[in-house]
Amino acid sequence: MLKNITLDRPLAVLDLETTGTDTKIDRIVEVSVLKILPGGECDHRTRRVNPGVPIPPEATAVHGITDDDVADCPTFRAIAPGLARFLDGCDLGGFNILKYDLRLLAAEYNRAGLDFPVAGRKVIDACHIFHKREPRDLTAAYRFYCGLEHEGAHGAAADVLATLAILDAQVARYDDLPTTIDGLHAHCSDPTALDMSGMFGKDEDGVIVFVKGKYKGRTLEQVAGDKPDYLDWMLKADFFDDTKAIASQALRRAG
């Protein structure tokens, strides 16, 4: 399976599907590990997990896994010892594994009261290599879309001109991109978000809920009633004005 990489010991390439993107609070709903031995033998195992919390609709929209799909699946605590044994002695690989998968895996093991050792392992992150080799900055975008070198990079005036040229070239390059500002705004925004910060959305019943942050999944009215100090903090923090307006209205209703 590997044609260009030499293995001295087993490599386990892993990927997680989860309830969200917050590595501190979100939970695993599926784990897949492809274990490759130095001799070339492979063992690919995938297991769904009952996260013990509802899977948000926005997460299901990404990976297609619903609450019903995992209702009869084991918890992470149940599979944790076996997974640790399967990964024992393996180096680890993944896409964005350093910033995401490993952090979430460590959090799940911590909740299960177990250790997941990473010391001594080699970790290969394809996302890190991708971003390092193919930079995703303004200079790289100008070169890619416009075929020009960005002279005066990081000077505000030159960056503005380059950005405008890139936007125009992107619309020309991709037939499915809108040609209007309204259309491009919709393309760049989360259609389910109620505010520019993406803090609030609506559940299936049309009730405003937090879609990220420490109260993710809770309704705005619940937080306004139980934790008004959190909304007070939001009004003083660096959220956009539309986010603050929603929080302020909820506080007034709760008061």
Automatic annotation (TrEMBL):
SMART domains: EXOIII. InterPro entries: ExoX-like_C, Ribonucl_H, RNaseH-like_sf, RNaseH_sf. GO terms for molecular function: 3'-5' exonuclease activity; nucleic acid binding. GO terms for biological process: DNA replication proofreading. One of its GO terms (cellular component) is cytosol. Residues 10-176 form the Exonuclease domain. Signal peptide: none annotated. SUPFAM superfamilies: Ribonuclease H-like. This is Exonuclease domain-containing protein. It comes from Aquisphaera giovannonii.
